[in-house]
Design brief:
Length: 153
């Protein structure tokens, strides 16, 4: 016969008599982060969608020149960078939780989490580089390859 412990029974402290363990706070912080970042992402994403799709000419205005014009200002660079970083950390943390919950073998968990962290690092580094080094009119580029608005410069 299997006996299931009473969930309302007092827990036995792990660290010694009457002491509380501080291990496991990482998961609490990850849980809180997911809630806070989710709310921030909602604000960032909806403001992004409204400013790009509702204000102005709508989706027909979005082209290379539109993105180049947006990323010419530090405000939009920081806005998009914040969205990128927050979304990637939020998504990576969620996938980490899923891997921890469903991967039964330690080796499988290690491989999946390593691939996850590698993908995170590649996307964040490349995305950050693109946002801050984007130049629609590079010096020395052939004129026939440049957008039409670069000839004015």
């Amino acid at each position: 016969m299997t006996v299931i412990a009473d969930p309302k029974a007092p827990r036995i402290p792990r660290s010694g008599p009457g002491r509380r363990s501080t291990r496991g706070n990482t998961e609490l912080y990850a849980w809180v982060f997911m809630r806070v970042s989710g709310v921030l992402l909602l604000v960032l994403i909806f403001a992004h969608l409204i400013s790009n799709l509702v204000v102005g000419e709508g989706v027909s205005q979005i082209d290379f020149a539109f993105v180049a014009g947006k990323w010419a200002t530090p405000f939009w660079q920081v806005w998009d960078l914040t969205m990128l970083w927050l979304a990637m950390i939020h998504g990576t943390n969620g996938m980490r939780t899923i891997i921890n919950d469903y991967a039964e073998k330690d080796r499988t968990r290690l491989v999946l989490k390593s691939a996850l962290y590698l993908a995170f690092a590649v996307v964040v580094v490349l995305g950050t580089l693109v946002i801050f080094t984007f130049d629609p009119c590079p010096v020395g580029a052939p004129a026939d390859l440049l957008p039409s608005f670069c000839s004015d410069i």
